[in-house]
Amino acid sequence: MRKAIQKNANILAIFAIVCTAIVGIVHTLTKDKIEQQKQQQLLDRLSQVIDPTSYNNEIINDCIIIAPTESSKAQTAYIATYNNSPIAMAITTVAPDGYNGNIDILVGIKTNGIISGVRVLAHKETPGLGDKIELKRHDWILSFTDKKMNDEPDPRWKVAKDGGMFDQFTGATITPRAVVKAVHNTLVYFNKNKDTLFNQPRTCGGI
Known about the structure:
The chain is of the alpha+beta class. The chain is 36% helix and 21% strand. The protein has one domain (49-199). The protein has helices at residues 2-49, 174-199; strands at 63-66, 75-82, 85-98, 101-110, 115-122. The protein has a five-stranded antiparallel beta sheet. Strand 3 (85-98) and strand 4 form a beta hairpin.
């Protein structure tokens, strides 16, 4: 009996070692491909928030890390330049107050403070309601394009239910409200710090 138990234990141990080895090998073989896919996905999103014909640098490698604050974690800013002159910046940000948690967002802003585009990178919002923040579900996210701040604070930067200029979704106000707030806060930060951001030494590359 004891020998049988020991034999089964040995078999299980060998099986676990083999499985672990296989997983490790697969990870090693696919690591570069996964990184390439991530790079391409990021480039695709960057091209959606900043016109790729407006810059001639490798934007994915021309980036800085924005230090965390009391209310937000560290974010990345990708800088678009044309012949070394700044054209725009795409900043990652997080809306922490989505209906189902964090909403990761990419905000493109021209040097003159005008929004060039906004896209959602990741979220857990309710399908059929909050997921309308995705472009493939709804064109709502395009309503940020060409918007800017006239004042600070600018009372227009709210959903219509709160007296602002952005529509909300039927049955889902929390999600668009969270996105509008996050984009607004990012724009405020950019307007206050753009000179420093564009002149800051590059501190990252790729993902």
